[in-house]
Amino acid sequence: MPIRIPDQLPAQGVLLGENIFTMDSGRAASQDIRPLEVGILNLMPNKIATEVQLLRLLSNTPLQINVDLIRIDNQAPKNTPQSHMDAFYHDFSSVANKKYDGLIITGAPLAMLDYEKVKYWDSITAIFDWAQRHVQSTLYLCWAAHAAMYKFYGITRRLLDNKFSGVYPHRVKSPNNELLRGFDPVFYAPHSRYGHIDVADYEGVDGLHVVAESDEVGAYVVASEDKRMVFVTGHPEYDANTLDEEYRRDLAANQAPSVPVNYYLHDDPASEVMMRWRAHGSLLFTNWLNYYVYQTTPFDLSQLAAKQHKVRSQHE
User: Fold this and answer.
1) How far apart are CA 169 and CA 142, in angstroms?
2) Structural domains of the chain sorted by starting position, each given as residue range(s) with its CATH number in brackets
3) Which sign, positive or negative, has the C-alpha torsion 211, 212, 215, 217?
4) Can 246 be counted among the known catalytic residues?
5) Which of 37, 142, 146, 280 is labelled catalytic?
6) Which end of the chain has fewer surrounding CB within 10 Å, N or C?
């Protein structure tokens, strides 16, 4: 698809190698259409790997998309060169007056911290509020999904004794929801999390609907009726080897991790990985872009309205 990303971004070479069409600024400017404006607030430590994963999933529609990579602060990331951040990322303050058709907020390795103890909690909640006024539809992934549920609805995740790690079967609960258009009745998706919110807690919020779930790991996709908020508790963006890297990292740190379920052939870490979630992950992002962003966003983004239905903070 014609996705426009910054020139020289490392993801560009990876995507071109996968025969995914990217567009430079010159070609984008020659097309007489309004592209979708999509921001990615990347909270993951390895920014470059996450960029590739998300841009790949944004690449399967005929829509032209401008992507802004956004960072929450100027602190040097642990696993990404500072030069990369300076070259390709916008400080949030520099885009705070901009309006976006779509925004993706990634997960973060913060499972064991209380929300208020996260060093950038005040900043991330300010961005959550900002998105209600400046973004047509926001997609919250994993930790961000739980953090947004806490911020807006006062629902606190509980921490599991054993991490959900693996590739789990899910079923389509709302087959008429456009996010799941084209999905098989049962499909697989990766999870890697300690945090958990019960399905009943999501369904207890007026205007939210669980549209895909798993008997083993609970709610997977939760969407608001007005299409302005989507919560995804897993990692449809993960590469084939991401869970393997996490497992071996935790082994090296003597954390005694469980073998990711339904991931290795015969559940044997010495065997090959069974990659069976990319098609549905790609379709989820395509449906979000088409039905929750493109079909609902105003042509003139200055006309974007503040989110109408009432949300409540955790302090109410």
Assistant:
1) 17
2) 3-298 (3.40.50.880)
3) negative
4) no
5) 142
6) C
